[in-house]
């Protein structure tokens, strides 16, 4: 059953513009899907990167990524295996454990990774304005269910298309790092449709509506080989946001025209990837995405925006090099002792609030952040 929370009265006058709505301390580990199915003691490394949508009731739903980690990793990793969670021990001489999130196998030329945590998805229901949590649905948690999810399920993105909800997630395993698809009639009970993008293609975002009777998606393939643009080009080689189309949401064909590419005029798109599912506005498709500036352990993640043509999403109408949302360390100051990353905001959802948009992000790979942005900002 869902855990229901009492609410204080809130009026429009005291709504916040930028705030944390859900943190690791608010996850009840006694109700975790790992309880009774894992031999090791765990804690919540992060509750972050929430997919977001509006339910038929009017309430909002966050699909929160809960990263449940080993209290004492010591070169050990967590893995799902046929309805149970197992701990794999790695010889200390083979690994680099300097990053608390991962184990790097240094004795192989391609440096495979194992994870010290395993991620599952927790539905958290909010009031229609996003100001408060009304229920946490532990009984509807989405957990690994296939071999290609052995290391967990990450970073949900939710789109409502033709009255039905669709959710893409990154599924992680030794087999592949790919995109899996879920569907639902009500955004409460979800069905796993299977893998739709293969190895090293993640951050898949479904456009919230069809274009010329086709479904469209933004994708982001990874890799280590990028061919250079000619000298003087507006573009820089590297990870980019591509486009794909489908007749049925299950079978995808890459679109031949490029999507959003790293721009040579800024170092903030040295890496880039999808953020919130593109939303149709009067002016075109509003796309929020993340750009990464080199620096520190993982780089500095910020959220940017681009407006795409409503009939041809490969054509950019407007965009900005200035960030829309910056990392906000002050928001996590009260839980700073739990932080293991800095300078990261990772946007994963957007809903319409009338004169504003409400944007959902993961802050510092730790907590769920909501940000109100006036629609006039994109004019």
From TrEMBL:
Keywords: Glycosidase, Glycosyltransferase, Hydrolase, Transferase. Pfam families: Glyco_hydro_130. Gene3D superfamilies: Glycosyl hydrolase domain, family 43. InterPro entries: Glyco_hydro_beta-prop_sf, Mannoside_phosphorylase. SUPFAM superfamilies: Arabinanase/levansucrase/invertase. It comes from the Bacteria. One of its GO terms (molecular function) is hydrolase activity, acting on glycosyl bonds. Belongs to the glycosyl hydrolase 130 family. This is Glycosidase. It comes from Sphingomonas baiyangensis. The lineage of its organism: Bacteria, Pseudomonadati, Pseudomonadota, Alphaproteobacteria, Sphingomonadales.
């Amino acid at each position: 059953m869902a855990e229901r929370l009492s609410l204080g009265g809130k009026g429009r006058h005291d709504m916040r513009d930028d705030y944390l709505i859900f943190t690791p301390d608010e996850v009840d580990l006694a109700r975790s899907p790992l309880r009774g199915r894992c031999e090791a003691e765990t804690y919540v490394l992060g509750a972050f990167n929430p997919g977001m949508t509006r339910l038929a009731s009017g309430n909002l739903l966050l699909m929160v990524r809960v990263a449940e980690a080993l209290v004492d990793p010591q070169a050990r990793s967590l893995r799902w295996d046929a309805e149970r969670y197992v701990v794999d021990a790695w010889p200390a001489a083979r690994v680099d454990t300097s990053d608390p999130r991962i184990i790097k196998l240094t004795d192989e030329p391609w440096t495979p990774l194992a994870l010290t945590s395993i991620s599952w998805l927790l539905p958290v229901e909010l009031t229609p304005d996003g100001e408060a949590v009304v229920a946490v649905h532990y009984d509807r948690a989405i957990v690994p269910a296939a071999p290609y999810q052995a290391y967990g399920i990450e970073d949900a993105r939710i789109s409502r298309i033709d009255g039905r909800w669709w959710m893409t997630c990154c599924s992680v395993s030794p087999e592949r790092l790919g995109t899996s698809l879920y569907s639902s009639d009500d955004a409460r009970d979800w069905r796993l449709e299977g893998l739709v993008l293969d190895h090293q293609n993640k951050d898949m975002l479904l456009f919230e509506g069809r274009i010329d009777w086709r479904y469209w998606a933004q994708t982001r393939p990874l890799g280590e080989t990028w061919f250079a643009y000619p000298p003087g080009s507006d573009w820089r080689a590297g990870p980019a946001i591509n486009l794909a189309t489908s007749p049925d949401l299950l079978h995808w064909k890459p679109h031949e025209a490029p999507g959003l590419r790293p721009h040579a005029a800024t170092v903030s798109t040295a890496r880039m990837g999808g953020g919130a599912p593109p939303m149709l506005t009067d002016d075109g498709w509003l796309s929020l995405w993340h750009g990464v500036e080199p620096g520190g352990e993982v780089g500095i993640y910020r959220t940017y925006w681009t407006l795409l043509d409503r009939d041809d999403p490969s054509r950019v109408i407007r965009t900005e090099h200035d960030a829309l949302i910056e990392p906000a360390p002050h928001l996590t100051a009260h839980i700073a002792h739990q932080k293991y990353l800095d300078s990261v905001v990772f946007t994963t959802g957007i809903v319409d609030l009338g004169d504003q948009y409400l944007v959902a992000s993961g802050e510092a790979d730790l907590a769920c952040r909501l940000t109100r942005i006036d629609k006039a900002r994109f004019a």
